[in-house]
Amino acid sequence: MQVRRRIVDEELDVANTLWRDAGKRLLRHRLAMFGVCVLFLVIVMGVFGPAITPYDPNGMDFANRFASPSLAHWMGTDDFGRDIFSRIILGARISLQVGLVAVSVATILGTGLGLLAGYGRRFTDEVIMRAMDVLYSIPALLLAIAIVAALGKGINNAMIAIGLVYIPIFARIARAAVLGIRNEEFIIAARALGAGDLRILLWHVLPNVLSPIIVEITLSLAFAILAEAALSFFGLGTQPPDPSWGRMLAEGRDFFRQSGWMAFFPGLAILFTVMGFNFLGDGLRDALDPKLRR
Amino acid sequence: MNYQYIVQRLLSAFVVVLGVTVVVFMIVQIVPGDPARVVLGPYANDEAVQGLRDRLGLNRPVVEQYLSWLGALTQGDFGQSLLNGQEVAPQLWGRIGPSFELALVSLLVGLAIAFPVGIVSALKPGSAVDIASTLFSQIGVSIPSFWMGIMLVIIFSLNYSLLPPSGYTPITEDPGDWFAHIVLPAFTAGFVSASIMTRFIRSAMLDVLSANYVQTARAKGLGERTVVLRHALRNAMINIVTIIGLQINALFSGVVIVEVVFSWPGLGRLALNAVLERDYPLLQGTVLVVAVMFTMVNLLVDLLYFVLDPRIEYA
Fold it and tell me: Are the beta carbons of A130 and B19 closer than 8 angstroms?
């Protein structure tokens, strides 16, 4: 018993060192750190949103319609005289919320299905992966639009749609990672020790496929934010008067001849946030798998 | 040539298309509540709702509904639009051309940017060109294409009046006007594809540039141009084709958005109109056609491997 505990302790030490090394590599990755800084700002905006906006994000001021950027209104005002900067701050909360919920749906369902496919029998694998092929054969955004069309417009259904669309990606990544390790000695040893399938999957397989999944989570957050912006831009996501960045861009489009800033700043907010997640994702990939580094 | 693989690949494409029909059919089935009521709105009388239920076949068992819908599809019958009562099929056929043109030109724009940038940055890793190309890739994958489209319209159509802001002219009517209309949408969709492809082309080129046969080619005294184009690029092509294949999903998604921004009369815009009007048969037809086109393109890409790399054996 003592020998077994020592082996487990040693294994944990090795695992901890690997994660610590990856953390150090990430801290040295300049672009990833830039991404972290951008995301920190976005998270602060998302968490403290209403408390830090200079104006009421939905407060109308008809005397100040279409005001261009100035000291009073850093990013100008829209067609109702609402302060665009305040609305962008509040929009961060919506973007983050959609990203987190949608990617959680995709990660939990996709990884679960991928683990089952990779670890299960051939029949299970075939059924799951052919279903994933089917979902993957419909362009992501079109599938999301179709799902929202069926479930109805609105932010909640947009989150579900975006999550469902990304399930095949997680399933493929998890399955590939499982196939790579399913015949490794530590899995065979665990089985020999009498561990059941579920225990092996959760305790031995899952921790070993985490790296590619963590990277994909970060990159999927970028996709989810872009997808939400696109759905809201089409009028299918966030509904008025809530200020989603995509919705603000769509509203700005109607007035871009007279006030280009209405569309310019929300687009810039999307660009920087998505770039933040992409930088962090790339940094994590380099840190967790140095062999892939280019 | 391994014909067994081709047959297997054709069969799997067929299974995927069949699966897509199930997903597309389910669009109406997962509508919360009564789809007929949802389409007609809360104030429609029961008689009208019942009439629509009959028309859509919603009173029959689900399996029967699916089989009869699938049977009609095999004869090219996509049903009738709920909005104007017209057949869906002719509406779809009219939109395939413009969508295909836009996707193709966008892909060409993407390749025209990605190849030179990717190759040059692989030849000089760490150089200013390489850093600029990395930055370009990062911006490209992060930029919302609808925002980029709007900004291009503001610059090139409103400020400088160089190009039309939206619309479409068939190439058969006036090729010059067609070209003027396709420049901005194709550049918008192509830019995003280019940024992703640049990274993969760079990576694929870096792999082959350090290979022994490239060193040998250099040692033989061949010019850099010959080494890069005839020895390295040709061997990197197999990976690059894979990426172009994967890129097509993103490209099709991008084209949907770009069509809406530039009022391009393609399938993407048709799908969005169908969603906004709750015209389910039209939406189902559009999604199905796009998915089938996409599956066919993927199949072609897979089969293209044979031509590019005769060494590949398929189990």
Answer: yes
Q: Is A12 exposed, middle or buried (0-12, 13-18, 19+ CB in 10 A)?
A: exposed
- Nearest residue, CB atoms, B287 vs list A138, A230, A271: A138
What is the least distance, in Å, from the CA of B173 to any CA of chain A? 30
Query: Which residues are CB-neighbours of A216 under 8 A, at least 6 positions away?
Result: A169, A170, A173, A281
Neighbouring-strand partners of residue B80? B87
In angstroms, what CA-CA distances link B230 with B132, B206, B304?
26, 15, 19
Question: pLDDT for B91-149, tens place per residue?
Answer: 999 999 999 899 999 999 999 999 899 989 888 888 888 888 888 888 888 999 989 99
Cβ-Cβ contacts under 8 Å, A156 against chain B: none
Question: What interface predicted TM-score (ipTM) does this complex get?
Answer: 0.83
Which residues are CB-neighbours of B135 under 8 A, at least 6 positions away? none
B-chain CB neighbours of A141 within 8 Å are: 253, 256-257
Sign of the Cα torsion A204, A207, A211, A216 reads positive
What 3-state class would DSSP assign to B285? helix
Residue B136 CB neighbour total at 10 angstroms:
18
Among the listed residues A172, A159, A174, the one whose alpha carbon sits nearest the alpha carbon of residue A213? A174
The residues, ordered by sequence, that sit 6+ positions from B192 with a Cβ below 8 Å of its Cβ are B110, B140, B141, B143, B145, B148, B250, B254
Q: What are the angstrom distances between the C-alpha of A26 and each of A156, B66, B144?
A: 34, 51, 27
SS3 state at A57: coil
Q: What pLDDT, in 10s, does the model give residues A193-220?
A: 888 888 888 888 888 888 888 888 988 9
Q: For residue B87, count CB atoms less than 10 angstroms from its CB and return exposed for 0-12, middle for 13-18, buried for 19 or more.
A: middle
- Count of CB contacts below 8 A, A vs B? 146
